[in-house]
Structures are given as structure tokens and as C-alpha cells.
């Protein structure tokens, strides 16, 4: 059985969903998905279920979908995000290099 998703790229599906629900609703959806991931990550280790990795994978997928939609809404390109990521990673590595080397991490 073929579904509509089988014939669409991921980007096309994300765009179709965004166009259907609209920017405001999808921004609220992004808040909800981010909140669910935060709550899962914040759970104490003894409160995490046996399916924690599976749950985490699903929440990350939800967040990545809405992040892509936010990028579409605001015309943010992957190259621009990558440039900022590289800058931030380098900056943090520089900070780590400047930390005192006392043997504890």
C-alpha cells in the first residue's frame, strides 16, 4: 500500500503540513514538541522507562520536523545554520582549551 508520504520528499511533506495548519499552529506545535523532549531529558534516570532510547528517538524526530518547518517559515537556510553551528562549536572548543587543566572533567 502506497501512502502520500511515499511519493513526497521529507521537505515536501513538511511544507504540506505547514501549509495545511499554518505558521501560528505549527509554532505552537514546535513549543509542544520541544517541551516533550525537555521533559523526557529532565526525567531522573530512575523514572525513565525501559523504552527510553526509543522514546528519545521519537521525540528527537518530532523536534527535527518542527525545526525544519520553523526554518521554512523564516526562510532560514541550512548553510546559514551550519555556519553558526561551526562558529559556536569552535568558540566552545576555545573555551575548553582555556579552562584550567586540573585533571577533573
What does this structure look like?
This protein has 105 residues and is mostly helical. The protein has a domain at 4-75. The chain is 75% helix and 0% strand. It is built from 5 helices and no strands. It has helices spanning 4-7, 10-21, 23-42, 52-73, 78-98. α2 (10-21) packs across α4 and α3 (23-42) runs antiparallel to α4 (52-73). The chain is extended and about 55 Å long. The model has no long low-confidence stretch (mean pLDDT 93).
Brief rundown of the structure:
The protein is mainly alpha-helical and about 100 residues long. It has five helices and no strands.
How do the helices and strands line up, and which of them pair or pack?
Elements: H1 4-7, H2 10-21, H3 23-42, H4 52-73, H5 78-98
What is the element string, with H for helices and E for strands? HHHHH
The proportion of residues in beta strands is: under 5%
* Spatial separation of the terminal alpha carbons: 52 Å
Shape: extended
Helix content: over 70%
Total strands: the figure is 0
Enumerate how many helices there are, as a single number.
5
Quick one: biggest sheet? none
CA gyration radius, whole angstroms: 18 Å
Structural class determined from secondary elements: mainly alpha
Amino acid at each position: 500500500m502506497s501512502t502520500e508520504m511515499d511519493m513526497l520528499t521529507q521537505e515536501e511533506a513538511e511544507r504540506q503540513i505547514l501549509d495545511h495548519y499554518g505558521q501560528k499552529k505549527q509554532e505552537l506545535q514546535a513549543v509542544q514538541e520541544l517541551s516533550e523532549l525537555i521533559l523526557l531529558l529532565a526525567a531522573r534516570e530512575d523514572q525513565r522507562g525501559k523504552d527510553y532510547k526509543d522514546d528519545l528517538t521519537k521525540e528527537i524526530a518530532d523536534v527535527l520536523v518542527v525545526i525544519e518547518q520553523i526554518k521554512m517559515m523564516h526562510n532560514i537556510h541550512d548553510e546559514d545554520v551550519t555556519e553558526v553551528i561551526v562558529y559556536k562549536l569552535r568558540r566552545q572548543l576555545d573555551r575548553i582549551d582555556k579552562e584550567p587543566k586540573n585533571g577533573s572533567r
